[in-house]
C-alpha cells in the first residue's frame, strides 16, 4: 500500500491523506493540484500558478453564487455573462459587489420577523449616543476606519483605491517603501515615521513574481487605473499598460500610491525589522525618487555609526567581534560538521510539497540538510584486533547468544523406571558382597598379584630403615569419603611402622582428619600397645599452607594442643609427651607419611616441608586418582617425595613383602569381583553402543 | 599514579614476603632474631587464616538464616543445616571436640554418609561407561572407554587373572598410562602452576598487585 511520510514529524500516512494524522501538517500542497514529486516538483511555482488560474473561475464563481444567493435570479446570469473566453474574468469586481451585498445585509423583506423585532428592540434600548459613550476607544477607532472605508468605497467603489488613499496619507509623511517594514498604521506610529529608517526593502524583487492571471511585467497598476477604478478596468476596459517603462515613468509621480504590502511583523509589536542591504545593491539598482532623496541622509547616518563604531572598537580591542578565543576555537568540533552548505539558486530550489509551507519555494529543507545521515569526518581510533582476539570475541558472542536463545521444550517423556541404573547398582553390590561367602561355598578366590609395582620394594626398604627412636609423623589429610580406599592402603604402612615399634604421631589439616586418625590407630592399637605410648594425636592444624610451613619450621609453635590425649597428659603440654620430647623441628621425625586423596594437599606438603625436612623421608600414601600428579615429585632426580604407595594392589604387595596378614588381603576378593563386574559392564556398554550404531546405519 | 597510604601497605607486604621467601634460600635458623621474626609473621598469617575460617562459618550461618527467614526456595534444607550446625557446635563446645559423643557422631553419621556418596560415585561412573557409546559415538568417547577398560584390567584381578597369561602386559600398559601418559600431563600442569605462582608472588612482592587495597 502506498504511503507518504510527513515532512514535519516523519509519521507514515496514507497516500491519499491530505493532513498528517500525527501533527496535522498538510501533506498535499494547497496551490498545486498534484503532488509535486519528481518532475512536477521541479516545475515549481509556475505550474501551481497555472493550476490556480484554471481553477480560479470555478471556486470564485461558486463563492459568488453563495454570496449572492439572496437574489438568485439576476447574479448568476451576470456572472455567467462576465466570464468570456479570452478575457480576464471580472472576479475581483464581482467579489467586491458580493462583499457589498454582505455589508448591506439581506433585503428587509427577507428578514424573519424575530430579527426585525430584535433589531427594533436593540434600537430602542441602545441609542447611538449611548453607544458612543460606552464603546471603548479601540472599537471607536475601528468604527471610524470602517466608516472612512465605506465613504471611500462610495467614492471609488474600489478597495484598492481605499488602500491607496491610506497609503497616500502615510506616504506624504514618510518615504514610500517602508510600509512593509512597519506594522499597520496607528496613531502612535505616525510619530515613529519621523525617526530615521535604516534601509528600505528592495521592491524590485517583487517584480519577478507575476500574479496568477496576468503576464509578467503587466501587473502593476498605473495611476490612471487607480483613478479610474481597477474593477472597471478588469471588467470591461482595455488592457492597461503594466510594462516596466510605464511603471518607471509613473513611479516618481505616484510615490504615495504604491500598492499596500502587508507588514512582515505583527502589528501589535511595533518593532522595526533591521534589514541590512548591501550598498552596492542599492547603487546598482534603479532606485525610486524618494530613495534618492533620503540617500544623503542615510550617508550621514552611516558616518555617525562609523564614528560610534570606532569608539566601540577602542573599548573592545582585546576581543574582536565574531572571533573565538584560541582555547574555545580548539574545542570547537570543526570536523564534525560540514564546513559549508551549498545553497542552490532560488529558481532551482524545489517547491515545498507538503506541510504548512507547501507551495513555497526556497524553504529550508530540514531533512536533507540536518537529518541526512552522513559519515562523520572525525577520524575514529581504529581498533586493532588480532585473529586470536577476534576468534575469542566470536566465541564469546556465540556463548552470549546461546544463553539468550530459547531452548525448545522437548516433549515430556513418560515416566520410566531407571531400570538400567538399578541393574548396575544391584550387580555391583552383589559382586562386592559375594566374595565374603567364598569360603563357605569353597570358592578359592582371586590369586594375589604376582607382578608387584616397582614402588613397593623401595618403600618397604625405606620404612625398614626408619630409626626406631624417632617418631613417625603420619598426616591424615583425606575426607571420610576416601576412607574405604585409603584406610586399607595406609594400614599396611602403619602396621609396618607399628610392628617396628616406631611411635606414630598423627596430624591433619582437615577437621575430619583427627577422628579418622583416631579410628584407624585404635584399630591398629588393638594389635599392639595402647595410645599414648605408641601413638599420639596432635590434632587439627589450622591455617592451610602457611600452617604447614610454620609446622615445618617450628612444630612446637604451630601445634599447642593435642587430640584425645591419654590420661595424665595435659592438653596444654602435648609436647611433654615421651614421644615428642625430643622433637624440635620437622627433621626430628624419623619419617613423614602423608595420607591424602587430594593432589593439592600432597603438593603443598611436598613443597612446603622440603627445606625443613632434612634427611627424614617423605612418603605419600595416595588415592589412585592422585598418583599421576605426585609421581613427578617422586621420579625427579632431586626427589621431594621418597616413597609412594597407591592402590589396593600395591598395598597387598606391601603386606606380602612385610609378612602382614592385614585387611588388604581380606578385601582383595571383593576388590577383584567388583573390578571384574565393572569390566563386564563396560564391555556390555561397548557392545550395546556398537549394535545400536549398526542398527541405526542399517535403518538409515 | 596517585601516591597514598597504599605505599605503606605495599612496603609492609613486600618486606614481609621477601623476608619469608629468603628463608627458603638462607639458613635463617642461624640468626635467632631473623628466625623469631619470620616465625612471628607466619603465626600472624595462621591466626588470620583461623579468623577467616571463623568468618566463613559465620557467613554460612547468616546465609542460611536469611534463606530461612525469607522462606526462599529450598529453605527447609537450610533449616536442617542450621539445626545440625547448632547441635554440633553446642556438642563440641560443651563436651569438647575430642569427646566420645563427638566421636560417635563422626563414626556413625558423617563417615557413613560420605563413604556412601563415594560408593554412589563409583556406581554412577560404571553406568556412564555403559551408556557413553550409546549417546556419543565419537573418537573421544571411544578413547575414554578404551582407556578405562585397559586400566581396570591392569589394575587388579578381573577378567584376566593375576597369574593368567597376558596380565603382565595389561599391568605394564596400565603403569604406562598412569605413570607416563598421565604423569606427563601432570608435569605440564605442575609447571604451569609453578610459573603462575612465581608470577603472582612477584607481582604481590613488587606491589603490582595489591590485594590489600589501594587506600
Question: What layout of secondary structure does this protein have?
Answer:
The complex is a heterodimer of chains A (about 700) and B (about 220).
Chain A: E1 3-5, E2 12-14, H1 39-43, H2 45-67, H3 75-82, H4 91-104, H5 113-125, H6 128-134, H7 137-156, H8 159-171, H9 189-192, H10 223-228, H11 230-235, H12 244-251, H13 279-284, H14 289-315, H15 326-331, H16 366-369, H17 387-404, H18 419-433, H19 438-441, H20 456-464, E3 472-477, H21 483-499, E4 504-508, H22 513-525, E5 535-540, H23 544-553, H24 555-558, E6 591-596, H25 599-608, E7 618-622, H26 627-635, E8 643-646, H27 647-658, H28 663-666, H29 668-699
Chain B: H1 6-22, H2 32-70, H3 75-95, H4 100-135, H5 139-155, H6 167-205
Helix pairs in contact in B: 2-3, 5-6
What brief labels describe this structure?
heterodimer; A: 700 residues; mainly alpha; 4 domains; six-stranded parallel β-sheet; two-stranded antiparallel ribbon; 5% strand; B: 215 residues; 79% helix; extended
Verbal overview:
Chain A is mainly alpha-helical and 700 residues long. Chain A folds into 4 domains: 1-30 and 319-374, no CATH class; 38-308, no CATH class; 423-437 and 662-700, no CATH class; 456-654, 3-Layer(aba) Sandwich (Rossmann fold), CATH 3.40.50. Chain A is 47% helix and 5% strand. Chain A has 29 helices and 8 strands. Chain A has helices spanning 39-43, 45-67, 75-82, 91-104, 113-125, 128-134, 137-156, 159-171, 189-192, 223-228, 230-235, 244-251, 279-284, 289-315, 326-331, 366-369, 387-404, 419-433, 438-441, 456-464, 483-499, 513-525, 544-553, 555-558, 599-608, 627-635, 647-658, 663-666, 668-699; strands at 3-5, 12-14, 472-477, 504-508, 535-540, 591-596, 618-622, 643-646. In chain A, helix 2 (45-67) runs parallel beside helix 4. The relative contact order of chain A is 0.06. Residues 32-56, 72-89, 101-109, 124-131, 175-222, 224-244 and 263-270 of chain A have low confidence and may be disordered. Chain B is mainly α. Chain B has helices at 6-22, 32-70, 75-95, 100-135, 139-155, 167-205. Classes of the chains: A mainly alpha (700), B mainly alpha (215).
